[in-house]
Design a protein that fits this description.
Elements: H1 3-23, H2 32-57, E1 63-67, H3 77-83, H4 87-95, H5 101-105, H6 117-132, E2 136-141, E3 149-153, E4 156-160, E5 172-173, E6 179-183, E7 186-188, E8 191-193, E9 196-208, E10 215-225, H7 231-235, H8 244-251, H9 263-290, H10 298-301, E11 302-307, H11 314-326, H12 330-340, E12 341-344, E13 355-357, H13 358-364, H14 366-382, E14 391-392, E15 395-397, H15 398-404, E16 408-411, H16 414-422, H17 426-431, E17 436-438, H18 445-451, H19 454-464, H20 485-506, E18 513-518, H21 527-542, E19 550-555, H22 563-580, E20 589-593, H23 599-605, E21 611-614, H24 626-632, E22 637-639, H25 645-652, E23 658-659, H26 664-672, H27 676-682, H28 685-695, H29 708-716, H30 722-740, H31 743-755, H32 762-774
Parallel strand pairs: 1-2, 1-11, 2-10, 11-12, 12-16, 16-17, 18-19, 18-21, 19-20, 21-22, 22-23
Antiparallel strand pairs: 3-4, 5-9, 6-9, 7-8, 9-10, 13-15, 14-15
Helix pairs in contact: 1-2, 1-4, 6-32, 9-11, 11-12, 11-14, 13-14, 20-31, 21-22, 21-28, 21-30, 27-30, 28-29
Bound molecules: N-[(cyclopropylamino)(oxo)acetyl]-beta-D-glucopyranosylamine.
């Protein structure tokens, strides 16, 4: 019997059995949620042997350990089914019972383990590592509620706790891997005696690679009280107080990025970060030593990557474990740690570069502070260039600590890496030339093409066979199709079907250009620039202007404490309400803000997009990965020369990219002019009129001043140069209109984007890290290279 048929027969037999075992219901009475539980159980069973084999096959080989506060993995079961080659079989096995696989998969909640690009990148990396056959662990925290679930009330963002753990379908509890982590206390004779302890409980999520030959592990730590219950206290009558330890420990991983505007919040964040680092580094060393490794050969077997500065405490922790607990001489311990560690920077925004107050650090991590002082002093003595100090003005600068303790530091796009060298790390770069390298981000084509766009994948399969999914640069072989009108039609037919799918799920109208702006809401990403252009477009339509019918789609979350970002969300919704209700324009312009943006919504939106909005102020977006996903799915970009947009434009061709705006260099100069916003507004009647409408309450009739402060911010400070870039953005959008009005031209542009974006695969990125940062190789004979 061919392999596929065996699998189908097995799933057909196992799914109903599991349904009864796990939920006690028969197939004919089972709701999709019960089938999802059964499917999770069958998948764990199928993955188990691959997982065990991968661990055994990797024993003694060099491992990558990727430490990250976020893993924005998205739903896991569909991906696992696809990578294991079981998707069609699962569909058939369920169809026998009249159940749709899509409905079952939709029962899995998106794990609330991430926020934005940095977290999604980590998820793509794990999948690529697994698909390439590289021994790899992701290490993170198992948040109970993650960031937050977003809903809209009166157009305003409302944050609610996200509950997802009840339906965590794939993870496996690994009690043998639990670690106890200490905090606070004192140091005596160079040894740390913590006064508080928390247990980090290991929960492993399997990440099977394409072809099902290899499996990476995402090990998530869930904090629990070291002594969960005080019986004496309970018997003395303090029934609730007796369980306080448990509540305190759980608070550590309740939410991602807890508010840190107050001291308690800061302490909580720092403890979260240390929990992640301490448990993960202990686990790396345990694995190494269990395989017979010594401290000296750790760098030959362990590459530890710090995803931004949040896991920077991994450096002093590793030094502590080597020096204090294994007797390695301090200088040698620092050298070994540095040879293992790498640091990826994901943003140059000053507010994101962590700096912890010294006092807090001394209180919570006294031994680590001693070690950081030691690292700082030695670094100072060894670098005649005197690049500055890790401890400075009463704070520990985590970016500098991560830099000093890493053998490689990387940026995430060519432009970003260049700016790192010239701005935040200028001094350190001069002292350590060659340490900073670039690794332009990528996205996995398994999820972001094959998974989210099955119609397009089928077209590619037909033309190239299924192998393109591991070699997406081969899509360029289809370039002759750019002259094949029939094929272009089929491509655009898929796009329309994806728009219909989106309409079914979100109620968006069809028949409009889908102009999509989805990402975290932030001033530098300039959703308000898009909004002002929307207002101006509406005004122009009312004046009789002719433009391609557009649906402007926005989605994204604003950080709970970021007032202006929340105002932007409200303004978008207010404008949407007025514009969508206008009978004079509603056949040519609509605006939608889709709530609760997450990976699953992105998987629906991106394949349906005609146009990708990547309009950050040049120099501010480190790379972007959404930009890559849109291009790969055939949506040309309207964008600035920022982050990876620069490289996308080079790959897809300048003629297939709608460029506008100041360059990073020009933006810096422009910002130095004290009245840059006023100068731009005075020469742009269109901008003045749009701003004026917003400011005077044209979209908030009951409360005319509602958006006054947003408009005033653009008029007065406008750090992100919305006014300065407005006119050029308007011009680029009119070029979009003209191109869209010619369906044959537009189809060619869309297809050129899709076929030429294969380079932006995270497999290519991972190969770059393997060669230039980690010095690791795949395990021979495994993975789908
Ligand atoms: C993001 C960058 O903003 C984005 O340009 C880049 O593509 C992505 O990282 C992956 O490299 N940065 C973050 O997500 C970030 O800095 N998050 C901090 C809030 C933690």
């Amino acid at each position: 019997m061919p392999k596929d048929t065996v699998a189908a027969a097995d799933l057909g037999r196992d799914l109903p059995r599991r349904l009864m075992a796990e939920r006690g219901v028969a197939p004919e009475e089972a709701p999709p949620g019960a089938w999802a539980v059964a499917l999770g159980s069958v998948l764990r069973e199928r993955i188990g042997p691959v997982w065990v084999d991968a661990r055994r096959g990797a024993r003694g080989a060099k491992h990558v350990s990727y430490l990250s506060m976020e893993f924005l993995v998205g739903r896991l079961m569909g991906d696992a089914l696809r990578n294991l080659g079981l998707f069609d079989e699962a569909e058939e096995a369920l169809a026998v019972h009249g159940v749709r696989l899509a409905d079952v998969l939709a029962e899995e909640p998106d794990p609330a383990l991430g926020n934005g690009g940095l977290g999604r990148l980590a998820a793509c990396f794990l999948e690529s590592l697994a698909s390439l056959g590289v021994p790899a662990f992701g290490y993170g925290l198992r948040y109970e509620h993650g960031l937050f679930a977003q809903s809209l009330e009166g157009g305003r963002q409302v944050e609610r706790a996200d509950h997802w753990l009840h339906a965590d379908m794939l993870s496996v509890r690994r009690p043998a891997r639990d670690v106890t982590v200490g905090f606070a206390g004192h140091v005596a004779n160079g040894a740390w005696h913590p006064s508080e302890f928390v247990d980090a409980r290991a929960h492993d999520v399997p990440v099977p690679g394409w072809g099902g030959e290899w499996c990476a592990t995402l090990r998530l730590w869930q904090p629990a009280a070291h002594e969960p219950f005080d019986l004496q206290q309970f018997n003395a009558g303090d029934h609730v107080g007796a369980q306080e330890g448990e509540a305190r420990a759980r608070a550590l991983a309740r939410v991602l990025y807890p508010e840190d505007g107050h001291e308690a919040g800061q302490a909580l964040r720092l403890k979260q970060e240390y929990l992640l680092c301490a448990a993960s580094v202990a686990d790396v060393l345990r694995r190494h030593e269990a395989a017979g490794g010594t401290s000296a050969d750790l760098p030959d077997r362990a590459a530890i990557q710090m995803n931004d500065t949040h896991p920077a405490l991994a450096a002093p922790e590793l030094v502590r474990l080597l020096a204090d607990e294994r007797g390695v001489e301090m200088g040698e311990a620092i050298r070994i740690a540095r040879a293992c560690l790498g640091y990826t920077n994901h943003t140059l925004l000053p507010e994101a570069l962590e700096a912890w107050p010294e006092g807090l650090m001394w209180h919570l991590l006294p031994r680590h502070m001693q070690i950081i002082c030691e690292i700082d002093a030695r670094h100072y003595a060894e670098t005649p260039q005197r690049p500055g100090s890790v401890i400075d003005h009463g704070v520990v600068r985590m970016g500098d600590l991560a830099f000093v303790m890493s053998h490689r530091v990387n940026g995430v796009s060519a432009l970003h890496t260049d700016l790192m060298k010239r701005t935040v790390f200028e001094g350190l770069h001069r002292a350590h030339p060659g340490r900073i390298v670039n690794q332009t981000n990528g996205v996995t084509p398994r999820r972001w093409l094959r998974g989210c766009n099955p119609g397009l994948a089928a077209l590619y399969d037909e033309a190239l066979g299924p192998g393109w999914v591991m070699e997406p640069e081969r899509l360029r072989e289809l370039e002759p199709m750019l002259d094949d009108a029939g094929w272009l039609d089929r491509f655009m037919e898929v796009k329309r079907a994806n728009q219909a799918r989106l309409a079914g799920a979100c109620g968006t109208p069809t028949g409009f250009m889908h102009d999509v702006h989805v990402k975290r809401i932030h001033e530098y990403k300039r959703q308000h620039l898009n909004l002002l252009e929307t207002i101006a477009l509406w005004q122009d339509l009312r004046d009789g202007g002719e433009h391609a019918p557009r649906l402007k789609i926005f989605a994204g979350k604003a950080a709970p404490g970021y007032a202006l970002a929340k105002e932007i969300i409200r303004a978008i919704n207010d404008v949407a309400a007025v514009v969508n209700a206008d009978p004079a324009t509603r056949d040519r312009l609509r605006v939608a803000f889709l709530p609760d943006y997450d990976v699953s919504l992105a998987e629906l939106l991106i394949p349906a997009a005609d146009l990708s909005e990547q309009i950050s102020t040049a120099g501010k977006e480190a790379s972007g990965t959404g930009n890559m996903k849109f291009a790969l799915n055939g949506a040309p970009t309207v964008g600035t020369l920022d982050g990876a947009n620069v490289e996308i434009r080079e790959h897809v061709g300048a003629e297939n990219f709608f460029l506008f705006g100041l360059t990073a260099e020009e933006a810096m100069k422009r910002r130095a002019l004290p009245d840059h916003a006023a100068r731009a507004i005075v020469v742009s009647h269109r901008l003045e009129r749009a701003l004026d409408a917003l400011q005077r309450g044209a979209f908030s009739p009951g409360e005319p001043a509602r958006h006054a402060s947003l408009a005033a911010d653009i008029r007065r400070s406008d750090h992100f140069l919305v006014a300065s870039d407005f006119d050029d953005y308007w011009r680029a959008q009119r070029e979009v209109d003209a191109a869209f009005a010619d369906p044959a031209r537009w189809a060619r542009m869309a297809v050129a984007n899709a076929l030429r974006s294969g380079w932006f695969s995270s497999d290519r990125t991972i190969r770059g890290y393997m060669d230039e940062v980690w010095n690791v190789a795949p395990v021979p004979g495994l993975g789908s290279r």
